[in-house]
Amino acid sequence: MSGQDLTDLDLVAAADGVAAGRFSARELVEAALKRIERWNPVVNAFISVDADACLQAADAADAARAAGGDLGPLHGVPLAHKDLFGRKGYQATCGSKVRRDRVAAGTATVLERLDAAGALNLGGLNMSELATGPTGHNLHYGHCRNPWNPERFTGGSSSGTGAAVAARLVPGGLGTDTGGSIRLPSAFCGIVGLKPTQGRVSRHGVMGLSFSLDNIGPMTRTVRDCARMTDVLAGHDPLDTTSARLPPPNCEAAVGRSVRGLRVGVVEDGHYTRYLSPEAAALLEDAKAVLADCGATLVPVSLPHQELLANLSNVLLGAEATMFHGPDLVERGDDIQPQVRARQMAGFGYPALAYTRALQLRGPILREVVATGFAGADVILLPIINTTARGIAETDVGSAPGMAEFIAQVSSCSRPLNYLGLPGLVSPCGFDSDGLPMAFQLMGRPFDEETLFQVAAAYEAETRWCDRSPPEPG
């Protein structure tokens, strides 16, 4: 398609354009590869680029369209994903030396569903090692860098997906979220990201970190893009025993619905506000005003036990991560970077009583939070990050004494939703004085992702932060 940079298209526009014959899947892939060649040396988003295989798949997609076959909702669109999703016969590095030579015996359910929807796979994206780390630092494959300022971090652990989507290397990709690892890089990189309700999306075939807290979800440029990917991914999977036996949602249909009369809960609790920078607080106030102008009703809400939830999630994460990765910690500990090793080794010290208590409290606290927080609200608006992305060098704390406190501050607003299993959607809400993105998150009732998309889409339609792109590399 002459005269247009196809990487400027969001996911839905790309898919709809291929379906309508305005351009080919091969043209989309070729445009992405050219942009990756220019941008990846700057942001270090890709661990591997499968150019030849993706071009062959694009040609097959174009042939299928020409033959008049039924096309999926992502037909011909090149995507890339955090490098921990298994695909039969291929390696997934998981951002680690200890995993990079292991060949997957099967394909993750989420990849099979994307394949069935017509999506193409462009490669594996950088990440915090073993999905452990909220900043995106990685000593093995190089630190991932923020497209808005390469001296700043991306957030983690789905760092490469955040950077790749923000830099328009791909219009979307998958991340995982155990303590904020979809929502943090989405917020720091200025894109949309969903942590679905636990059980909404299958985890079969994906590297585990904590089976009590892990989630898989999409990261995209726009709310509609994210909704379309969610509709493809969601639904029961018999291969995942924790998968909810519920019909899949229709999230894309919720995009464009009016929010007039919808109740948006606003929390003034100190847990979410104590670390907020003045600029972050001001941008959140602006977001509230926009939603009010759209017709939503802002209502104060209270969320009980939020301070406790971070500690309880730490117990679950610590014990379960050590269960998953204990053999590598013991046999190949020197091949794991110090911060990751220190955090996962801590799991050996959690007593069984603390772990079982953390599991036992989860249901009662969830019921109390839902009954209290959503008594007068349909969704709840919360901060997700306390400030915009900080410098890579200054936050490369390794296993220093202040490591635990620093990590706790970065993820203080994200971890409660993992413990509760509730859905959270991140939306960009502006830029600070340094030109770096800021965001908020919406928290919903269990399995009510549709309302999150409804509210976020209304906000996006008024502000269009998604239309801004990072400055081109010098």
TrEMBL record:
It comes from the Bacteria. It holds the Pfam family Amidase. InterPro entries: Amidase (IPR000120), Amidase_CS (IPR020556), Amidase_dom (IPR023631), AS_sf (IPR036928). Residues 27-452 form the Amidase domain. This is Amidase.
